[in-house]
């Protein structure tokens, strides 16, 4: 769907499937239809080349392969599969530069322990029948699977709706406490077979992971306070998942470091070997036999033609058996997968070198060199074009060749061109490209998502909001929004198309509101906003992590995508503008930038909080800039490469700042 949602349709037979497919294709644009017909959406080639060049992350590439192989969040029996990447769940500090910290990605889970691998190979050899036995079951190493509905529910048992599915699968109650997902170290030892000390370990446990291990801390916490029973040997209740010592008791810190491990040089250099096992050349045939990677035959795509089975009971039994065993992804590659050519560390060095040779310095915005009381240097050469607009206007990202204008007598929302930029249709400054009449009437405030595909506007006199979407020159009204938590005009808006959410603050209410744009509905209230009349309430949404930033007076509140408060910090002066650097949460360069009424600009880093501190994150003041703004800062923007900070003040002055190289001196 254009709003990011997707649906899984399960049909009875091929004939019905083809009829539905044909009907749906009739509603697809001609260009996209030709791409689908040519198989471009099913071919991994283009994305593989992008991954090799370091243009997409390991996580993004694995999700792409899972999608092409028929895996979906909408199907528990074919859920996306991800690898165990670490082998160290016991150290106090995780050393990502030590190869011993990582799992061997060239082997399946069942072959990581030599003794267990030998037992699986012996089973396979014992099942090889003679050529005269056509009814013999094809030999296999594993009678279970690394991915199944039961495994997904095992990991996600603390989250709804998976909790309910788990109870249903167990006949109305949770499974025995000793069999639940309770400890990451024990789960690793059991799945890898590397320790016989794990209670209830069997040679059949070969689980891989699911994507949530790399982005969703909530599934590791028992926030719903379910009674999951007590461990038989210690009588300790099963509650939150027991984390490795290096996570410092924080599920967020575990996920951050775990994702960092996935994107590390070591995993990047070896991930193609795991892809061979799951999606590629070592999935089937002699290569799979040599790699100790053969599963029960019904787990493979095309192993049996269900439509050819006329007996309904037999067909139902086979389907149930397939669901029980798990399903191997569709094979995407028949030749060994190529390795990644550009590792993350090489990419960082190349970007730094490129920036330095261009005279812009090698430091990121978050790596400040600015002694107290010293004015930071401005970017004298400009470093490329940028656009700025007046109050009552909002630039439309990502190219900023158009802007929204509002506050007109006819209450319209207008899309205007910024100069005769390429792709703007040759529009001169301020030329109106589109006019949109919205139900809420005269517009008082507007916001645009970072990709330019979602627009949220608010009435200047009522608490009504209007959501619009589309391209920059073809916006259409989508829905009108209202809530009892807003009783006066909306004062500030931040919107994210990537997460289909928005945050708004009302001028006469003390509550910030989180909206679900995909469904056009109120989601929840957030923390208390400032009292009416206490000044601006800057808002920001991080499109990478979904983190929310709500500022009130001198207070900065940092929340997760679900509105849970992670950290609160207090600045020295009233906050008048805020933005978030577009860097991934697992890196060290992620910062919140605040502009203040006294013209100063401050940097705040979202860092791991000490063990036991609520939220698991803490906003630490990293530094301040004096860019010679002599009045309140009105707008801030950090460039996508993190090398440039743009700041504008209420008098119309715009300053472009580029940090000097680390250890250098401002020019």
UniProtKB/TrEMBL annotation:
Question: In its keyword annotation, does this UniProt entry include Lipid biosynthesis?
Answer: no
Q: Which UniProt keywords apply?
A: Repeat, WD repeat
Q: Which Gene3D superfamilies match?
A: BEACH domain (1.10.1540.10), YVTN repeat-like/Quinoprotein amine dehydrogenase (2.130.10.10)
Question: SUPFAM superfamilies from the entry?
Answer: BEACH domain, Quinoprotein alcohol dehydrogenase-like
Repeat as a keyword of this entry, yes or no, is yes
Q: Which ranges carry the BEACH domain?
A: 36-340
Q: Where is the BEACH-type PH domain?
A: 1-25
CDD domains in alphabetical order: Beach
| Source organism, top-level taxon | Eukaryota
What InterPro entries does the record tag this protein with? BEACH_dom, BEACH_dom_sf, BEACH_domain_protein, PH-BEACH_dom, Quinoprotein_ADH-like_sf, WD40/YVTN_repeat-like_dom_sf
The UniProt entry, under PANTHER family, shows:
BLUE CHEESE
What's the protein called, per UniProt?
Answer: BEACH domain-containing protein
């Amino acid at each position: 769907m254009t709003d990011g949602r997707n649906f899984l349709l399960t049909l009875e037979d091929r004939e019905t499937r083809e009829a539905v497919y044909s009907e749906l294709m009739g509603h697809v644009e001609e260009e996209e239809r030709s791409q689908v017909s040519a198989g471009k959406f099913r071919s991994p080639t283009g994305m593989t080349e992008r991954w090799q060049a370091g243009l997409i992350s390991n996580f993004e590439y694995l999700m792409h392969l899972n999608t092409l192989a028929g895996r979906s969040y909408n199907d528990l029996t074919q859920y996306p599969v991800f690898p165990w990447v670490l082998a160290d769940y016991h150290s106090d500090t995780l050393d990502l530069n030590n190869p011993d910290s990582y799992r061997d990605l060239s082997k399946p889970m069942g072959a990581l322990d030599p003794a267990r691998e030998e037992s699986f190979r012996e089973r396979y050899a014992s099942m090889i029948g003679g050529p005269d036995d056509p009814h013999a079951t094809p030999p296999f190493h594993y009678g279970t699977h690394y991915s199944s509905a039961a495994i997904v529910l095992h990991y996600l048992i603390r989250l709804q709706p998976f909790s309910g599915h788990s109870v249903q699968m167990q006949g109305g109650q949770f499974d025995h406490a000793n069999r639940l997902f309770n400890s990451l170290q024990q789960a690793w030892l059991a799945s890898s077979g590397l320790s016989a000390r794990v209670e209830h370990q069997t040679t059949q446990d070969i689980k891989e992971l699911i994507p949530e291990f790399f982005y969703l801390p909530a599934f590791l916490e028992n926030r719903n306070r379910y009674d999951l029973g007590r461990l038989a040997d210690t009588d300790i209740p099963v509650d939150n998942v027991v984390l490795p010592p290096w996570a410092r008791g924080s599920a967020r810190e575990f996920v951050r470091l775990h994702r960092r491990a996935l994107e590390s040089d070591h995993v990047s250099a070896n991930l193609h070997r795991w892809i061979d096992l799951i999606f590629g050349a070592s999935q089937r045939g002699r290569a799979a036999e040599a790699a100790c990677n053969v599963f029960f035959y019904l787990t493979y795509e095309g192993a049996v033609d269900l439509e050819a089975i006329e007996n309904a009971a037999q067909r139902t039994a086979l389907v149930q058996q397939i669901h029980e065993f798990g399903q191997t992804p569709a094979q995407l590659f028949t030749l060994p997968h190529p390795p990644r050519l550009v590792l993350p560390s090489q990419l960082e060095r190349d970007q730094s070198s490129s920036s330095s040779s261009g005279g812009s310095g090698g430091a990121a915005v978050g790596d400040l060199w600015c002694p107290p009381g010293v004015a930071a240097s401005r970017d004298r050469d400009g470093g490329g074009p940028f656009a700025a607009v007046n109050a009552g206007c909002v630039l439309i990202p990502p190219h900023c060749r158009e802007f929204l204008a509002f506050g007109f007598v006819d209450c319209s929302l207008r899309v205007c061109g910024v100069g005769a930029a390429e792709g703007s249709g040759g529009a001169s400054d301020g030329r109106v490209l589109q006019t949109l009449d919205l139900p809420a009437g005269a517009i008082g405030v507007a916001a645009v998502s970072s990709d330019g595909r979602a627009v949220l506007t608010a009435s200047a006199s009522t608490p009504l909001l209007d959501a619009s979407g589309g391209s920059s020159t073809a916006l259409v009204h989508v829905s009108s929004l209202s809530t009892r938590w807003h009783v006066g005009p909306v004062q500030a808006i931040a919107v994210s198309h990537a997460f289909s959410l928005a945050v708004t603050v009302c001028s006469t209410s003390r509550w910030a509101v989180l909206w679900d744009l995909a469904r056009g509905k109120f989601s929840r209230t957030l923390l208390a906003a400032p009292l009416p009349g206490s000044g601006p309430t800057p808002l920001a949404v991080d499109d990478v992590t979904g983190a929310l930033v709500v500022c009130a007076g001198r207070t900065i509140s940092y929340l997760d995508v679900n509105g849970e408060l992670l950290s609160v910090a207090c600045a020295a002066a009233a906050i008048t503008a805020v933005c978030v650097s577009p860097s991934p949460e697992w890196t060290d360069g992620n910062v919140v930038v605040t502009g203040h009424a006294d013209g100063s600009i401050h940097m705040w880093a979202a860092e791991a909080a000490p063990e036991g501190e609520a939220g698991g994150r803490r906003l630490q003041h990293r530094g301040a800039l004096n860019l010679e703004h002599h009045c309140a800062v009105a707008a801030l923007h950090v460039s996508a490469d993190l090398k440039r900070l743009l700041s504008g003040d209420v008098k119309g002055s715009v300053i472009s700042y580029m940090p000097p190289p680390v250890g250098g001196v401002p020019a």
